[in-house]
Amino acid sequence: MTRPSAGQTLGPFYNYALMGANEFDLTRGGQHGPAITITGKLFDGEGAARRDFLLEWWQADASGQYANTADAPFRGFGRCITKPDGSFSFKTIKPGAVPFEGNSWQAPHASLGIFGPGLMRRIVTRVYFADEDNTACPVLNLVPEARRGKLIARGDSAGAYTLDIRMSGEGETPFFAE
Amino acid sequence: MTRVYEPFGGPSQPDLRTKRYMRTNVTAPAEALIELPRTATETSGPVFGAADVGDVGVDLTNGNTVLGSLSVIAGQVLDEDGRPVANALVEFWQANASGKYPHEVDTRPAPQDPHFTGAGRMLTDAEGRYKFTTIKPGAYPVPSSNNWWRPPHIHFSLYGDAFASRLITQMYFPGDPLNSIDGILQAVPDAAARTRLIAQQDESVGIHEHALGYRFDIVLRGHSETPMVG
Ligand SMILES: [Fe+3]
Fold it and tell me: In this structure, is residue B22 part of a structural domain?
């Protein structure tokens, strides 16, 4: 048995290597539900917007199923690199509820993996949706109640959601252990 | 395949922050991380195909004559039980022979090499193997760092078969004197884990009178089956 290889920072000089043309758009392979957008900005602990953070989005399809082939109609994976003003944007569809242990369910959500220049490992969080019933989600309920709102994107009637990410300090986004 | 994921961390992994670099003191979380059960969200993951790899390719010289020592890098992507991880997405990028990246933020006055692409992408085969052709990158100074030079290194991004088996790391070259004083390689506490980030010279990988060869194996999170308990 061998422990995983050590993580190392992706550095600041990577965007030409990783970025597919439209990887922020999870509907690029076809429309399999009403389109929504999630936009926001990523801030550091001093409130400065930060560029060149890599965000990776992973979600189930509208029925709560995760894609398990490369030719699935809805792949569920996207990437976005924060712009010089710290902004990011994903276009996708609303995921369905996902099974948990027993008869319980996780509220519709996406997982978000974050890599940053200088940071040695990925940091993981989740995105929930304000217009869903999040009260019984067994994972969201692991987050202290006062901080839960930091994981919940707020949308308008056109499906445009917003959520900012605070990497550290006051108003810090809740992050999960890997 | 059903895999089991142990909690991540321990002495084989560096602290999240890098000292004296990119202000990670204000980008690393200050609050304790929240323990997360393994759910369908974490044990599933994106599956990549040939269309995702596109035409980026595995020859960073594009068949051109480029500056630097021509090198072939090859290795195997394995899980924690030593079993191959097939169809893993492997992406790699690096500076050119003068230590310069083709990136707008790299403003150091060193020359670009127009014939060198600086990045490649591929999927591992059924034995978890990958291989690509490149040149050995140059060292480069870390801006505002009191003369800290990064040793020659290649950045590697790997996606195994789950959201949980995701790794970004760096490969170093054997015998470089900068390795032992690099703030990023040396941030890994465990000496054996640091050694595993240094490629091994391997003549069987190189091309006779043409390219040096290096072997670099990578271990991703996950056991193939439930480990024995007790
Ligand atoms: Fe680098």
Answer: no
Of residues B83, B155, B196, B215, which has the active-site annotation? Answer: B155
Mutate to test the interface with A, among B17, B41, B105, B220 (most CBs of A within 10 A): B41
Which of A6, A53, A69 lies at the smallest CB-CB distance from B197?
A6
* Average pLDDT value for chain B: 94
Give the CATH number of the domain where residue B145 resides. 2.60.130.10
Inform me whether the pLDDT recorded for B141 exceeds 60.
yes
| pLDDT for position B229 | 52
CA–centroid distance for B31 within its chain:
28
Q: How far is the CA of A129 from the centre of ligand 1 (A)?
A: 37
- Which residue did the predictor score with more confidence, B185 or B57? B185
Q: Tell me the ipTM for this assembly.
A: 0.96
pLDDT the model gives residue A19: 76
Phi/psi zone of residue B146: left (φ > 0), alpha (ψ -120 to 50 degrees), beta?
Answer: left
Range A35-166: architecture per CATH = Sandwich (2.60)
How many independent structural domains does chain B possess? Answer: 1
Active site residue B155: yes
Is B101 labeled as catalytic in the residue annotation?
yes
pTM: 0.96
Strand, helix or coil at B123?
strand
pLDDT digits (tens, 9 = 90+) for B7-32: 888 899 999 998 888 899 999 999 99
Domain boundaries, chain A: 35-166
Measured distance CA(A1)–CA(A21) in Å, rounded:
39
Cβ contacts below 8 Å, chain A against chain B, sum to: 233
**Structure confidence at residue B230 as a pLDDT band (50, 70, 90):** very low
Contact A45 B194 (CB under 8 A): no
Q: Which residues contact B110 (CB under 8 A, 6 or more apart)?
A: B98, B99, B100, B138, B140
Residue B165 is part of which domain span? 54-219
- Report CB contact under 8 Å: B164, A2: no
pLDDT tens digit string along B95-115?
999 999 999 889 999 999 999
Q: From the CA of B38, how far away is ligand 1's center (Å)?
A: 32
Looking at B101, B130, B172, B214, which residue is catalytic? Answer: B101
Q: How far is the CA of A89 from the centre of ligand 1 (A)?
A: 26
